Amino acid sequence: MASVELQLLLLILIANGAPIIAAVVCGDWGARPVDGGRRWADGRRLLGDAKTWRGVALAPLATGLGAVLLDWPAMLGVVIGGGAMLGDLLSSFVKRRLGVPTSGMSLGLDQIPEALLPLLAVADAFALSWPDIVATVAGFIVLELALSRVLYRFGIRDRPY
Description:
Layout: H1 3-26, H2 53-69, H3 74-97, H4 112-126, H5 130-153
């Protein structure tokens, strides 16, 4: 994996980790569910309590800061963070339709949209090929699963996934 893909992977990790860290640091501040408790036609919540405005807002900001630290434009980081959050919301919506409970594990569905959407959003800017995108998504899956276990051991995550 080339340097650009590694930097993109780092920003995707920042985007997906920011809501988890924010929950610990910020407590209840901004922890209002994005779906406002609304339900879909199937009677299930749209997203669930774990998808909060705090996470949706702070992830692009943290990723924008991460981009600046990599000497990239902040807006590029914001786009990556926003894409990651859209992927996270999409996977939560699909999981609710499948009957997976909030914070329930769904291998692949929990990781692929969160990495794929931001990469597609910046693919032209970095001339990313499909092999680049697939390798970066695969790298994210491996790292996300490993880091989730580490965060669980330190009491930052409620579950090891």
